Amino acid sequence: MIMKAEKFYSLSDLWKNIKKLPQKRKYICGGTDIAVSLKYGSLDIDCLIDISDVKELSLIKKEKNHVFIGAGVKISEFEKNEIIKKCVPALYKSVRYYASPTIRNIATLGGNLANASPCADGVLALLASRAKVILNLYGKKRVLEIKDVFIGPKKTSIKKDELIEGFLVPIWSHKSVFLKSIPRKIFGISKAGLCVCADIKNGSVRDISISASSVGPVVLRCLKTETFLKGKEINDKTVEESYKIIKTEVSPINDHRSVAEYRKEIIGVFLKRALSSLK
């Protein structure tokens, strides 16, 4: 039987009381992924810690060199926020692909990371945006590259009681493209996804970040493709070569949503489309 803990409204209150709670405990904010796990009995816990109203987790702040995004900010809020639209365009563009409107109004960016799904749309946008994650354990913080959080599908390096406080997204000159293949026209889990953030001037790539989802055990950065494209002019030859390279960086599987060969091919096609639209 699940015992729901009292709702917490601040981090100081949380750290003061957390050790009094049952040992088998788990944070809940949006809870869209946890609800599924509870329904099917795949989560062995005695206590849910409700952090949905912790004030520090609901902030979006623009600072000198970065944007801070609280882990508890709802996905739907990114589409309305001018800071996100201007400074983190990949995240802004990802919202309309993210599940259904009902889920967007409940789900959070922190939960999207914590669930460690290989098809996480929010993580896809964050990786290409070069975001880092802030983890908080009893008031002590550490900052990690997002790639270092993932161990494998649904597995993370996050410690017991460690909380995802938020994300630091650097402010840099770039435009973004977010592409996703889904089983249905809308509201589908990704067959494959690609996000490209690039600074392109006079048709040449000054800087670029590329991430891909549903084509490996975790959402990944396509570093070989990035290295190849930096400094290159976007022309037919460059686009064709990058298409070949990115397909060597992914390792998709066959499952009920799609087959590996399609996923590998569509990632290459998505990159072609992204580069053509950005040049």
How would you sum up this structure, described in words?
There is one protein chain. Helix content is 30%, strand content 26%. The chain is globular and about 60 Å long. It has three domains: 3-50; 56-170, Uridine Diphospho-n-acetylenolpyruvylglucosamine Reductase, domain 3, CATH 3.30.465.10; 175-278, Enolase-like, domain 1 (2-Layer Sandwich). It is of the alpha+beta class. A hairpin with a 3-residue loop joins strand 4 and strand 5 (66-70). The longest helix has 19 residues, at 260-278. It has ten helices and 14 strands. Helix 8 (223-229) packs antiparallel against helix 9. The strands form four sheets. It has a five-stranded antiparallel beta sheet. Strands 11-12-13-14 form a four-stranded antiparallel beta sheet. A three-stranded parallel beta sheet has the order 1-3-2, with no helix packed on it.
Order of helices and strands: EHEHEEEHHHHHEEEEEEEEEHHH
CA distance, first residue to last residue: 56 Å
Tell me the major beta sheet.
5 strands, antiparallel
CATH architecture of the largest domain: 2-Layer Sandwich
Q: Would you give the CATH topology of the largest domain? A: Uridine Diphospho-n-acetylenolpyruvylglucosamine Reductase, domain 3
Sheet-strand content, in percent, reads: 25-35%
